[in-house]
């Protein structure tokens, strides 16, 4: 029996959510310039960049190891800056989890905004850990994006 789980991470950002949404949805390949030690390449395999049903893969370094994550864009909502990525290949689903999703959205918080990442996953058993290091990694990338956006 699979064990479902969810982790949610919040990062306060100084720029508008549309900048983050546009970067993740339409220009993910530009992320390699923002976080070059973490993200090395983002390839489009199928579909149109940013469209629901498109398939992309990320080449990245996590915990000192080079990894790949192949994902399909499942859902997009422009109004609340939401993007849902379902992981369909790579170490997360090939070696650890039975299923894995990244959900990104931005919400207002006073005069600032908060970037929210939700990780939804199914562990095959209790020996597979919660993906807390993945969440820390993603939140650090959001901080890199925010620092980069100060120059825009």
Automatic annotation (TrEMBL):
Domain Bet v I/Major latex protein: 2-151
Gene Ontology BP terms: defense response
Top-level taxon in the UniProt lineage: Eukaryota
Official protein name in the record: Bet v I/Major latex protein
SUPFAM superfamilies to which the protein is assigned, alphabetical: Bet v1-like
């Amino acid at each position: 029996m699979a064990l479902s789980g969810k982790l949610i991470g919040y990062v306060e950002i100084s720029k508008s959510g549309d900048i983050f949404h546009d970067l993740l949805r339409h220009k993910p390949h530009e992320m390699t310039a923002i976080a070059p030690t973490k993200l090395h390449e983002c390839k489009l395999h199928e579909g149109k960049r940013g469209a629901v049903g498109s398939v992309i893969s990320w080449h990245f370094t996590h915990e000192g190891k080079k990894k790949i994550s192949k994902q399909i864009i499942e859902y997009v909502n422009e109004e609340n800056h939401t993007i849902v990525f379902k992981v369909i290949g790579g170490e997360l689903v090939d070696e650890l989890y039975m299923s894995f999703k990244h959900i990104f959205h931005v919400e207002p918080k006073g005069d600032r905004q908060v970037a929210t990442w939700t990780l939804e996953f199914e562990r095959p058993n209790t020996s597979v850990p919660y993906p807390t290091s993945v969440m820390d990694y993603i939140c650090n990338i959001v901080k890199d994006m925010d620092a980069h956006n100060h120059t825009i």
